[in-house]
Amino acid sequence: MRKIIALLCLFGMVNLYSIGQTATHSFTLSKTDFLLDGKPFQIISGEMHPARIPVEYWRHRIQMAKAMGCNTIAAYVFWNYHESEPGKFDFQTENHNIAQFIRIVKEEGMYLILRPGPYVCAEWEFGGLPSYLLKIPDIKVRCMDPRYLEGVDRYIKQLALQVKDLQVTNGGPILMVQVENEYGSYGNDRRYMKWIQEVWKNNGIKVPFYTADGATPFMLEAGSLPDAAIGLDPAASDAEYDQATKANPNVPSFTSELYPGWLTHWGEKWQRPDTLGLLKDVKWLMDHKKSFNFYVIHGGTNFGYWAGANAFNPTQYQPDVTSYDYDAPINEMGQPTPKYYALRNLLAKYQPATLKQTPIPAENPVIEIPEIKFTSTGSVWDNLPPAIVTPQPKPMEMFGQKAGFILYRTNLIGHKKGKLRITELHDYATIFIDGKFVGKLDRCKAENIIELPEATTANPQLDILVEGMGRINFAEYMIDRKGITERVSLDGMTLMNWKVFTLPFDETYLSHLKFSASATSSKPGNFFKGEFELATTGDTYLDVSQWEKGVVWINGHNLGRYWNIGPQKQLYCPAPWLKKGKNELVIFDLHQLIPKPVKGVKKME
Question: How confident is the model at residue 121, as a pLDDT?
């Protein structure tokens, strides 16, 4: 009977926890296999991230993964999403409740792989590290810097309180916990890796650990641990698995990230990886009984300011789009794609013929919204907070600001025109002289010099409004402060005596915005507000294809950034954030003076 139950659970055909709500299990490592209650167990995992999915849709997305053929969910936990300030944790509100997500996984009869960082990459802001670390001028991360370790220790202790009772040994679904993430791609401090593992052990984590790295000798040497399973990002061949065996023949290895899709940066075309190659890899893994994790089975959305960025040389900057659709089997709206059905059909061939597939959950309602009219405008220039005086510009982290925009203002003395240079601009600036728009500078294009025209006043006022986009989340240039991070000079003269206005554009700032009845403005940098009525709610995409660059809020929820360089021209708006009756839409655009049409559509282009 026990073998039959294990087989049913393997293919997600029965709710493991309906057999016994207090059932506990062992999960251990042999030299070649993962052992569930002493028997070899093949992990077929689909990754999704609670922070990228509205809490109301958690169960639906988990059910979708199960119906595709997965028996496990892998989930990143983002440190900076749960600890916004030192010691200020949120594991309770909305989709911050990671323990509730894990309990839903259990209720749906699945297991869970926990990926808690502290560093996660994930195309997420600063790779999951909190921005408050960057207030320390010489901070070093992902190493034994005691100031960094203090934060890591505090985070692990708090997260362990949320998850330790949810290990399989305690009747929960957690099989394994990852130590850091792809560390061999970044550093070689094995003492740091062992320290993290010990902190978890000291705080009640008893299930096995694993590491995840590329299948190359130097990455595996620097990133692995002696008693931790080896995850390979990615792997679907004997040669790749042989590398893991050479690195450590005493633990099993598995494909910790198999990529059904890929990420997209602003200004690129949507990434659409080949499905045939994916199916070939999955077939190899199933034929060889290798455990694996789809990264990602469902991507979700980088709501707010959470999208990250890449940079592989000092002058490169590639911010990620708001959508984390990732061309995944389950799309951003939670719908099955052709890739989903292809994988579901392939995985079904490996389950016993006597078992039926789990039915695919019904899709959530999708609606269109007619064109929304804008009736009022609020200029950022009329909604400035008190100024902070500083001799030279500083990045926003030094003022305790996590994300958003920041304004730098000074008066020109000496040089009044010429070449304005912003050294280390992070990331996009609009420049004004005496209130008149001069132009923009874009870090993505390595732009840092603009010609200032001659002004008519004695000491012209220079305003530089900077948008901080996603912090770099991978490789060696992760220390990525936002705003003006070095200096501003005009024809070689360093400009002094600045006023700084922090503009986080968060819920508190938005709630105090002052609007005028006019729907137009004479100066760039505006909030446009409109209202619309709904008789019924549903998921939709807000089409902002005629706008230039900015941020969108619906009923106070930040849907994320848009930018006319594409490829993303529509922003996902989940039904739970809409209301029957009156709804409010607010858009901040860096350039537009007149609002353009916005409507809700059923698909993203």
Answer: 98
Which residues touch 556 (CB under 8 Å, ≥6 apart)?
A: 507, 510, 511, 584
Domain end (from 477, 503, 529): 503
Q: How far is CA 206 from the centre of its chain?
A: 28
- Tell me whether residue 2 is exposed, middle or buried, using C-beta atoms within 10 angstroms of its C-beta: 0 to 12, 13 to 18, 19 or more: exposed
Residue 375 token pair: 């009736």
- Per residue in 56-79, pLDDT tens? 999 999 999 999 999 999 999 999
Tell me if 590 is assigned to some domain.
Answer: yes
Residues of the chain below pLDDT 70: 1-22
Tell me, what's the pLDDT at 521? Answer: 84
Supply the CATH number for residue 463's domain. 2.60.120.260
What type of residue is 344? R
Query: Is there a contact between 564 and 571 (Cβ–Cβ < 8 Å)?
Result: no
Q: Is 160 helix (H, G, I), strand (E, B) or coil?
A: helix
The answer to whether the peptide bond before residue 314 is cis (omega within 30 degrees of 0) is: no
DSSP state of 370: P
Same domain, 179 and 225: yes
CA separation for the pair 588, 379 (Å, rounded): 9
The single residue listed with the structure tokens 């409507």 is 599
Positions annotated as catalytic residues are 182, 257
CATH number of the structural domain spanning residue 62: 3.20.20.80
Q: Which amino acid is at 406?
A: I
- 0.90 exceeded by the pTM? yes
Which pLDDT score, from 0 to 100, does residue 15 have? 44
pLDDT score for 2: 39
Total of domains in the chain = 3
Mode of pairing for the β-strands spanning 483-490 and 418-426? antiparallel
Residue 22's pLDDT is 62
Cα separations in angstroms, 405 against 81, 166, 422: 19, 40, 16
Q: Distance (Å, rounded) from C-alpha 545 to C-alpha 552? A: 12
* Domain presence at residue 228: yes
